[in-house]
Amino acid sequence: MIVWYPSRMRAKTLWMAVCVVMSAFAAGLAAPARLDAPSTVSGYVALLLVNETPFPGERGWVSEQDTKAGMLAILWVLESRLKHVPAGYRQEHIASERCDDVIDVITAGGEKGQCDGFYRDAAGRFVTVDRVRERVEYLERCASKGEPGRFARLLDYAAGLARAYVEGGIAEADRFAGLRDVAGIAVTGRAYSWMTDRNNYAPGGSFVRIPDGQQGSLGGNRFFTLRRKN
């Protein structure tokens, strides 16, 4: 039997190769979660989902599951404003203007409109204010440190949810679709608005606050349905 003993140079080269592979593997584990480009529909939708929900250490943070549920509920609000206008209402009543697609819903009303900080510029491109981009860049830096954790999973969830929506709709059920009564008020079902979950924040008009007992508080936000008109 012939036993091969590597020379010192060969052993050093082999060890360096192993180190390179291990470093590459570690870098792969810590690869930053990335949203699609904000100039794409899926990237812009994901940007909104991330911007409107809390991450670890931020005001309103409860848990990873709660933030994901908040993202999903927000996406359902966008879809409901676009495709599920209830009887007795016009789209302008719930989205401030006529909307043909989800980008129209997000940017309705301009920079201080339906989704604060999300708007179309003079060239018609959908953009955001600086603070939105700066926060997402910070979250992506957090997600890139160490092995993938909550930050990375939440960013990946938002990205995946937005991509799936653009490609084929929402697979997960709308938890508010079956609402018919809120504190004795007949309602339409579905949520049509959300606001930061504080008692003094409310959209007014025909919107009805969904209480905690009906899961109205998710991802640092309070969700609102509509009074039924017929």
- Compute the gyration radius: what is it? 23 Å
Q: In which range does the helix fraction lie?
A: 40-55%
Q: What gross morphology would you assign?
A: globular
Low-confidence residue ranges: 1-30
How would you describe what is shown here?
- By secondary structure, the protein is an alpha+beta fold.
- It has a domain at 41-174.
- It has helices spanning 8-29, 41-51, 64-83, 91-95, 102-107, 130-143, 150-168; strands at 118-120, 126-128, 181-182, 185-186, 193-196, 207-209, 217-218, 221-226.
- α2 (41-51) crosses α7 (150-168), α3 (64-83) runs parallel beside α7 and α6 crosses α7.
- The protein is globular.
Which tags fit this structure?
two-stranded antiparallel sheet; four-stranded antiparallel β-sheet; 230 residues; alpha+beta; disordered N terminus; 11% strand; 7 helices
Question: Would you summarize the structure shown here?
Answer:
By secondary structure, this protein is of the alpha+beta class. Helix content is 42%, strand content 11%.
Question: What's the structural blueprint in terms of helices and strands?
Answer:
Layout: H1 8-29, H2 41-51, H3 64-83, H4 91-95, H5 102-107, E1 118-120, E2 126-128, H6 130-143, H7 150-168, E3 181-182, E4 185-186, E5 193-196, E6 207-209, E7 217-218, E8 221-226
Antiparallel strand pairs: 1-2, 3-4, 5-8, 6-8, 7-8
